[in-house]
Amino acid sequence: MEGLCRSTRLLSVTRLSSKQANKTIRNFSISVCQQRCDGQTRLTRRPAALPRGSRDGASQIRYQSSQEAVSQRSSQSRDVPNASEFLRGSRSLTKEEWQTMESPDGIPDMNLEYVKIGDNPGGFHPVFLRDACTCPKCVDPSSTQKQFQTTDIPRTIKAKSITRHDSGDFTIMWENDIPGFGPDHVSTYSAKFFDICDFRSSRLQDRSDHVRPRLWDKFRIEEELQFVNFTDYMEDDKQLFRALSQLQLRGLLLLRNVPESEESVAEIAGRIGTIRDTFYGRTWDVKSVAEAKNVAYTHQSLGLHMDLLYMTNPPGFQFLHCLKNTCKGGASLFSDSFAAAHRMSPLDRKVLSTTDLAYHYRNAGEHYYFERPLLELDKTSVATNHGKQPAVKFVNYSPPFQAPFPIPKNSQGFVFPKVAKALRNFADRVESPRSLFEYKLKEGECVIFNNRRVLHGRRQFDSGKGERWLKGTYVDTDVFKSKWRTLFEKYSATVDVRVGGQYVHPGKLEEGNARRPTKAEAKTADEASA
Ligand SMILES: [Zn+2]
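A: This is the predicted complex of the input protein with zinc ion.
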C-alpha cells in the first residue's frame, strides 16, 4: 500500500451492475496500490458499456488529487444549504466514504481472503459467511436463535475448504473458527442463500414483501372491493389468505354476516394476531345513541385522517364492526393515499418525504407526540406518471391531530411555502371526488383497512333519528405481516386471489395507476362534487 496518497478523495460515482462492480473493485484495488501521489493522477476503470437500469450494482469510482479537491471544496462551501437535507438531518454513508475510511489497523479488508462461491465473480467476506451459518450448532433448531454473536468470529477466519454439491448447496469448513467450534464444524449454504443476500428483490420475495399495492380510485374500488363471509374468514385458512391478499393489495376489505356481538371485532382481529391495545382500550366504541331531548344534536362530518400518528408505531390495520347504523347520513369515506402520492410531482414527493410534520394528543391526562414526514419512502423504485420514483411505504396524514409544524424560524421563509403547497396538492388529490369512496356500513359488516395507507372519515349524521354504533380495534403492521408471510408461503402457489374480476397470482401483481374513469363516470363524479 505504500505510495497511496492518503488525501485522495472520490470525485464521481456511477452505478454499475454487480458483475461489473466486482471486476472493477478488483482492478481498482490493484490500481490504487500502484499509484503514487503526483497531484494529477486520476484512476478510472470504466467498462465499455453500462447496462440499462442495473439495480444491484456497486459504484464506478473516479479519484482526484488533494489539491483539486481543496479548490473545489472551497467553492462548494458557498452553496446555499439544501433545505431538505438540513431538515431531515443525517444521510447514510456513501460508498466512497466507506472506501476511503481508514481501517482500524491500516489494513484494508480488501486484503482478506474472500470466499469465492461457484462461478460468481468476486467473493464473499469470510466473516459474513461464517456469521450466516445455520447449522444446528450455530442456530438452535428448537428456538431458532443464534448461538454466537458476530463479534465472536475471529478476524483471521479463513475458508479451509469449499465444496459444491450436486444439490447446488455449498459446504465450507473453517480455519481459525470461533473457539469451541471444533474442526468438524461444517457450514452449509443453499444456492438460494447467495441470491437472497445479494439481491434485495430476492430478499423481498423470500419474505413475501414483494407484492406491490394495487392503487385505486373510487371507480376501481367500487368494482373490485371484496366482501368476505365472516365464517369463511374465521374457519378457512385459504379464505383468510384471500382476505389478507386484499388487504395487502388494496388495503381495504369488508366482512359480512358478522355476529351481532360486542366481542366480534376482537375475534376478527385476533384471527390475524395479537390485538394492539391503546389508551382507547383493547376495543373501543364509536357510538351515538339517540336522546329524545336532544333531537337537534347533529354529529359533524369527520375529515379524512389516519389514527394514532402521534405514536412511535401507529397501528397498521383498523377494524370497524358495524353494530347499528340506522341514522340518516353517517356514511364512511375512504381514500387511497398511495394512489394520490403516486400521481404527485417529484418535487412535491421530495418535499413531503423530507420534511417532518408533527402529530400530538395532549388531553385528558395523556401526552403523545411524534414527528414524521407525510411520505415514508421505500428503497424500491416504481414507475409513476413522473418516471421512476421510490415506492411509498407509509403515508402519515391526520389533520385533526396535527401539531404546529416543527420548522425552525430561520428556514420557514424558504421551507414553509413549499410544504404548504405540497400539502395542499396532496389534500386535493385524496379529497377529490374521483378518489373518495363512500360506503355506508350495514349492520353485520366489518370494514378492515390499512391505517398507514387508506385514509378514513365519515359524513355527518343525524343522531336524533336512529342509532350509529361501531366497535373498533387495531392490529400492528408487524402482526399482519407475520400472518401474511406464513399464509403466503403456504398458499400462494395454489390459491389465486381475485383482482379486477380475474383470478391473479399475487406474485404477478405490480403497483400501477388507478385506471382513468370513463367519460360517463367522470361526468357523474363532477356532478357529485358540484
Ligand atoms: Zn455452524
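The pocket of zinc ion is lined by residues 133, 135, 137-138, 185, 187 (CB under 6 Å). Residues 409-431 form the longest helix (23 residues).
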